[in-house]
């Protein structure tokens, strides 16, 4: 915990005197505020997984799409399982937590997949506290099969920080096979995600361009960044008349670093270390199994900034994060 906090404070080395508060909600989640304004809400009762939404960047602009939590005119209304910042996997022991019931229609083609839908159930907060320039949430999450039987457990540590013109959310996820073996299938739809605002997408819909651009640490951009391995990836564009961005930084200690990025020009932005062959047909199958008691560590940082990746100093933020 001390090391996690040290890294977040390092990234906020030029921090202003931001005052954080965190409070439980009536529905069992939590709201994190900075200087009295909402930074993010952790919602635990509205889907088959907990998620952060809305999330606001350093200029006060919302950095997550509203849908499906709210229907806002002009937004994309695709993929209702893309909720703010969330985590899911299409196949662990044959059970899916990536999609949700609203994802599918009533066709026979999707009936089998609907039958595999499980859930990630927030059980309790192990830690819920605000410090001088950060807030810390530690959520214990039970992964349940379609019948409600537990098959996996996650300890998710979220550290919220603010710096001069930046905000960040560090995510440390420890996935433990507490009940027995846990087999992670090689799936394209898996990992830690953020769905960016519609106007920040590269392509809002067919023949309609957005303001956004994607770039990763290897210099690959937009559609060419999909499925490529990189230390970090950045999505930036115009939101409410301001140029803002969000980078995801992949820590060297994280599983299968550097991760492949399931990042789409329409606005999905996912770090997916579980997909190898499903993202690259020339790669070996990445399925693997945890024996009972074993765990997988995932560690990332959402870095919200002004401007593009250069103005936002994303590469410098990554170096600070990686040196912890």
Give a description of the structure.
- This protein has helices spanning 2-11, 108-114, 314-322; strands at residues 20-24, 30-34, 37-43, 51-55, 85-89, 119-130, 134-144, 150-163, 166-176, 182-184, 190-195, 203-205, 208-209, 213-216, 232-239, 242-250, 261-263, 268-271, 288-290, 295-306.
- The chain is mostly beta strands.
- The chain has one domain: Distorted Sandwich (Beta-galactosidase, Chain A, domain 5).
- The chain has an eight-stranded antiparallel β-sheet, with no helix packed on it.
- 47% of the residues are buried.
- The model has no long low-confidence stretch (mean pLDDT 94).
Question: Which features does this protein show?
Answer:
mainly beta; 324 residues; single chain; eight-stranded antiparallel beta sheet; Beta-galactosidase, Chain A, domain 5; 3 helices; globular
Outline of this structure?
The protein has helices at residues 2-11, 108-114, 314-322; strands at residues 20-24, 30-34, 37-43, 51-55, 85-89, 119-130, 134-144, 150-163, 166-176, 182-184, 190-195, 203-205, 208-209, 213-216, 232-239, 242-250, 261-263, 268-271, 288-290, 295-306. It has 324 residues and is mainly beta. Strand 1 (20-24) and strand 2 (30-34) form a beta hairpin.
Total strands: the figure is: 20
CATH architecture: Distorted Sandwich
In what range is the share of β-strand residues? 35-45%
User: What is the helix tally?
Assistant: 3
Largest sheet, in brief, is: 8 strands, antiparallel
Tell the overall outline: globular
| Derived structural class | mainly beta
Gyration radius, rounded: 18 Å
Percentage of residues in helical conformation: under 10%
- Which fold name is given in CATH as the topology? Beta-galactosidase, Chain A, domain 5
Spatial strand order of the main sheet: 1-2-3-4-5-11-18-17
Give the uncertain stretches in residue-range form.
none
Total domain units: 1
Task: Give the distance, in angstroms, between the N- and C-terminal Cα atoms.
Answer: 12 Å
Mean pLDDT: 94
Reading the helices and strands in chain order gives: HEEEEEHEEEEEEEEEEEEEEEH
> Briefly, what CATH class?
Mainly Beta
